[in-house]
Amino acid sequence: MQEMQTAAARRAAEAAAAGYVLDRLEAVPRLVGRHEDFLIVTGLAGTARDIARLTGDGAHAYLLGGAMGAACMMGLGLALARPDRRVLVLTGDGELLMSLGALATIAVMNPPNLAIVCVDNGHYGETGWQRSHTGLGVDLERIAAGAGIRATRTIADASGLEEGSRFIREGNGTCFVLLRVAPTEPPAYKRNLDASACRDRFRAALLGAR
């Protein structure tokens, strides 16, 4: 236990020095704001638990599990299918690193109702808290901009959260936000892992939100 605490303290100190200081338990809810404004697709693990807690495991949120790398393209399909609704993809740095090509396709399609938020803690929290590519210097906002997404932001302190919340609700094209947070555990929220039930309730919410 002491070794784990020491490792966590060392990880936190290194991350703070690199600018990963926001508390995700506060930053994600402040950035998302009124979650009912969106149909939501999340990555697995941390971001799924962020949104499960924020929405109370709401029917308008589809929380991935075991499908790493799929969130952005699912969000794109949803945004194209429902141009009358704003779609939010909330994913992590590890999940997005598995599907960077999705950013190029999204940039070309450029649906105006799609917002992508990458919660970047610079670590692979699911597999032992190894430093991720972003923790070693890869900048996912620059990659998104290089792929052709014209509206991008990096938010690394609390002063940017209010403007970021407006940013993901406005604009004439897809937007991308890199939210840098400290490498701490996501909410301890017990989400529904019945894939069929989650699919059916999201489909009902999707078809009913007209």
At a glance:
The chain is α/β, with parallel strands linked by helices.
Could you please describe the fold and organization of this structure?
The protein has a single domain, classed as Rossmann fold (3-Layer(aba) Sandwich), CATH 3.40.50. Helix content is 42%, strand content 18%. Helix 2 packs across helix 8. The longest helix has 16 residues, at 2-17. With 210 residues, it is an alpha/beta fold. One of its GO terms (biological process) is small molecule metabolic process. This is Aldehyde dehydrogenase. It comes from Caldovatus sediminis. GO terms for molecular function: carboxy-lyase activity; thiamine pyrophosphate binding.
Largest sheet: 6 strands, parallel
User: Spans with pLDDT under 50 lasting ≥5 residues?
Assistant: none
Shape: globular
Total number of helices: 9
Strand content: 15-25%
Task: State the secondary-structure class.
Answer: alpha/beta
CATH architectural grouping? 3-Layer(aba) Sandwich
User: How many DSSP E strands?
Assistant: 8
* The named CATH superfamily: Thiamin diphosphate (ThDP)-binding fold, Pyr/PP domains
Radius of gyration: 16 Å
- List the helices and strands in order: HHEHEHEHHEEEHEHEH
Q: Helical percent range?
A: 40-55%
Tell me, what is the CATH class? Alpha Beta
Number of domains: 1
N- to C-terminal distance: 51 Å
Mean pLDDT: 91
- How are the strands of the biggest sheet laid out side by side? 2-1-3-4-8-7
Output the CATH topology: Rossmann fold
Keywords: Decarboxylase, Lyase, Membrane, Transmembrane, Transmembrane helix
Protein name: Aldehyde dehydrogenase
Organism: Caldovatus sediminis
Transmembrane segments: 59-80, 87-109
